[in-house]
TrEMBL record:
This is GntR family transcriptional regulator. SUPFAM superfamilies: Chorismate lyase-like (SSF64288). Gene3D superfamilies: Chorismate lyase-like. Coiled coil: none annotated. One of its GO terms (biological process) is negative regulation of DNA-templated transcription. Residues 56-193 form the UbiC transcription regulator-associated domain. GO terms for molecular function: DNA binding. It comes from the Bacteria.
Length: 210
């Protein structure tokens, strides 16, 4: 069964059944402004809606702290390494099973005094973090995502044991290119199917139109 991918096993933990139908981790449409600006469908809920899965807002917890920026965070925000940033760390579960973690890093001047730095468990109010940024005058315009698979580290024990993880780096920009969020997500590989739909660019045609 392990060879067929139906179970996973590890020393000291035993054998666990893998998720049979992975969640669709939708790409572009999960960030549709109508979901979080005009409604209350934060990104992890959007994934569950499109996957036909039940959800509760309490399946996302959070902790907020002021930390020294790690190298990748500092580079993304254009800050010196070790500069103070807010880290909003979430553990997301499906039912009782943790599926991924996501930590968003913000410059203090962008989020000080907002719901993003409120440590109350759960999403940062109606519409989540993107709505908070929008209300503060930082409307998100475009993103860059990088994903790669790796072996989990010893401190990632909250995720299902004995399987690889998919790490996501997301940089979120306003229209003028200001970085307002850099996020690092760690996803249990067997729990997600990554799905993207987008218009295929035609740079030659775009050049002719100019």
């Amino acid at each position: 069964m392990e060879a067929e991918g139906l179970v996973t096993s590890s020393r000291g933990v035993g054998t666990m059944v893998r998720a049979q139908t992975p969640l669709k981790r939708i790409g572009i449409s999960r960030y549709d402004k109508a979901k979080w600006r005009d409604g209350d469908e934060v990104a992890f809920i959007a994934d569950r809606v499109v996957s036909g899965r039940a959800y509760q807002r309490g399946e996302q917890t959070q902790s907020v702290s002021l930390v020294e920026a790690p190298a990748a965070v500092a580079e993304a925000h254009g800050l010196p390494e070790g500069a103070q940033v807010y880290a909003r760390a979430r553990l997301v579960k499906e039912g009782e099973q943790p599926t991924h973690t996501l930590t968003s890093y913000y410059r203090p001047e962008h989020v000080e005094g907002t719901r993003i730095v409120d440590p109350t468990p759960g999403p940062a109010g109606r519409g989540g973090g993107f709505r908070v940024l929008y209300d503060a005058g930082y409307e998100i315009d475009h993103m860059k995502e990088r994903i790669f698979a790796r072996v989990p580290t010893s401190d990632e024990v909250k995720l299902p044991a004995g399987e690889p993880v998919v790490e996501l780096h997301r940089t979120t920009y306003t229209a003028d290119g200001t970085v307002v969020e850099f996020a690092v997500g760690v996803h249990a590989a067997s729990w997600f199917a990554w799905e993207y739909e987008f218009k295929v660019p035609d740079s030659a045609q775009d050049g002719e139109q100019k």
